Amino acid sequence: MDDMRPSGGAGAMGLASLFPPGLQAIYGECRRLYPEQPNPLQVTAIVKYWLGGPDPLDYISMYRCVGSPAQHVQEHWHYVSFGLSDLYGDNRVHEFTGQDGPSGFGFELTFRLKREAGETAPPTWPAELMQGLARYVFQSENTFCSGDHVSWHSPLDNSESRIQHMLLTEDPQLQPVQTPFGLLTFLQIVGVCTEELQAAQQWNGQGILDLLRTVHVAGGPWLITDMRRGETIFEIDPHLQQERVDKGIETDGSNLSGVSAKCAWEDLSRPPDDEDDSRSICVGSQPRRLSDKDTEQIREALRRGLEINNKPVLPPISGQRQSHDRPQSRKDSLESESSAAIVPHELVRTRQLESVHLQFNQESGTLIPLCLKGRLLHGRHFTYKSITGDTAITFVSTGVEGAFATEEHPYAAHGPWLQILLTEEFVERMLEDLEDLTAQEVPKLPKEYSWPEKKLKISILPDSVFDSPLQ
């Protein structure tokens, strides 16, 4: 449980030598912005993460920011996290790897919340929001970058607000800090509506952030979140959708390279009783585990997919794992909880499949047109990673190098990782056939799409199908 109390800044403690250097570095940057607030209110984890507590962030400081009338920036509350970077340098949370690399995960989170009239103290719910994002980072080791989006599917403050998702960007005031334990930057959480999230997915997060900056009530130059905002930027200015977003998608495509999803795939090429069949990863059966190298390749594919100015490349499957060994308190989101369950990489051969059946829940299914139009038609790739098992499905275009799916064998599997290569002609046809997935009306489930001559079938299924304990 969290507690709120005035922080003990370096000045309050008196002796800087007693103050952890990583913590001191962040406080120093905050004091540069708020010299008149040396002891801001803090939400503090009563039991620290490194002592077995549930919350990775040791502290969240809360400052009152007067804004900038000259820039039309309104007064707001400014929240800053402590704990995603290395605060202590003694390996209690993060492995110390030297000053030249990132400090811990290399960033801290910030959040700017509009101050309501009459508020004398900052609301504390943003602290729990930041703890939730930090838990995701620690558990998955998937770090955030500017332009990333977070599908939250719930009002950020548990109210009836339309602000139910998040984008991330560089904090407009806090500068990168070189600490004794490495470099850290400050990533700001920006609350957005569902329609704005969808636009970010279909185009890119940075483009939507730039639009939010131009609309004062939707964030303004410093991207201040207003939980009482009742209109999207597209309702405020209808021209933004067609003139900026639609044109951006057509020109740039999407930089969303993958999502965690409820999905599965089934090899229809073999009989069900074939012991060597990869049907073991289909709905209702135990998934084969991804090896460390498969895991790293999928993660690297997602990272490289964001580099929209470079030719898309899938790393070679024989590439060495780049990350160092991790502390016991963190595990990879794509790995088994038991390393003994992982199939050795050398023992899992790549198989060419003749016929496959893809299965998605409704939310994942609605992203298939984005995958096809925003990614494959622009020569890129898109990965669905199952949140209920080790299954992964990567769609690749003919322009992606390093894929084990080819035009001659467009369906190929390496353990539970399936790659599907689609030609531009087939993508165009699929977009026509899948047009109803983008409709406002929710289709009746289950819904099936089939291309017999391509030996491909896609089913959109209820969530309950994927909630089986066997997944």
Describe this structure in words.
It is a single chain. The protein is of the alpha+beta class and 471 residues long. The protein has helices spanning 10-13, 21-33, 125-140, 194-202, 205-214, 233-236, 239-252, 292-305, 362-365, 368-375, 424-433, 463-466, and strands at 2-6, 41-45, 59-65, 76-82, 102-114, 149-150, 165-170, 177-179, 182-192, 258-261, 263-267, 350-353, 356-361, 381-386, 392-396, 411-414, 417-421, 447-451, 456-461. Strands 1, 2, 3, 4, 5, 6, 7, 8 and 9 form a 9-stranded mixed sheet that branches. Helix 4 packs across helix 5 (205-214).
Question: In a few lines, what is going on in this structure?
Answer:
The chain has 471 residues and is α+β, with helices and mostly antiparallel strands. It has helices at residues 10-13, 21-33, 125-140, 194-202, 205-214, 233-236, 239-252, 292-305, 362-365, 368-375, 424-433, 463-466, and strands spanning 2-6, 41-45, 59-65, 76-82, 102-114, 149-150, 165-170, 177-179, 182-192, 258-261, 263-267, 350-353, 356-361, 381-386, 392-396, 411-414, 417-421, 447-451, 456-461.
